[in-house]
Amino acid sequence: MTGPRWKKGKDGKDFSALAAASPMSSIVAELQSSLKRSTLLATLSSRGGDAVLAVNPQQATLLNRAAFGQSLENAGAEEHWFQLGAEEVFYLHHALKCISVCKSDGFTRVNEGELWDHLCSASESFPEMYKAYAHLRSKNWVVRPGLWHGFCGLPSSPSACPLRVCRRCCSGTSGVRR
């Protein structure tokens, strides 16, 4: 068999056409543009490298489509909250330059160097994990946290990924493994 096998939806159609019609690069570019226009501020957690970010409903949809963060329970329809992992926070701040970050007090902004130092002090493996995360994201892969303290990278979108490809990066190992 040549080429990837695509998952099938509930209607029996495969997702290859969906992935071709809505490439991850376009979704991320739309997200980046929307977040930049809003000048959003993510607030770092006091206990580690995670951060929370408040967005509007359209941005929430884009964050979900681009597979950034975890949606939190929301009280209102006008504002949606997302929890971002350390790699996601730094990627949105450094690589996409579409959010600013503040300390847990909610006011004191941190620059790129301070954010890097904070995230490295929160996790020894952050530099290696971020390098792998940024590499996979630069290839337009979806990168999901978890999977034994690492993350799983999928080409395209989680619902439309080829069945045969899932890469993970685990703490304590070097590089990305199949």
Characteristic terms for this protein:
single chain, 36% helix, 9 strands, globular, three-stranded antiparallel sheet, alpha+beta, six-stranded mixed sheet
Describe the structure.
The chain has about 180 residues and is an alpha+beta fold. Helix content is about 35%, strand content about 20%. It has helices spanning about 15-20, 25-40, 55-65, 85-95, 110-120, 125-140; strands at about 40-45, 50-55, 70, 80-85, 100, 110, 140-145, 150-155, 165-170. The strands form two sheets. The protein has a six-stranded mixed beta sheet. Strands 7-8-9 form a three-stranded antiparallel beta sheet, with helices on one face. β3 and β4 form a beta hairpin. α4 packs antiparallel against α5. Mean pLDDT is about 80; it is low at about 160-165 and about 170-178.
Distance between the termini: 19 Å
Overall pLDDT: 79
Give a short account of the largest sheet. 6 strands, mixed
Proportion of residues in helical segments: 25-40%
The amount of beta strand, in percent, is 15-25%
**Count, helices:** 6
Gyration radius (Cα, Å) is 17 Å
Strand order within the widest sheet? 3-4-2-1-5-6
Structural class: alpha+beta
Q: Which stretches are poorly predicted, pLDDT < 50 over at least 5 residues?
A: 160-167, 170-178
What is the 3D form?
globular
Number of strands: 9
Order of helices and strands: HHEEHEEHEEHHEEE
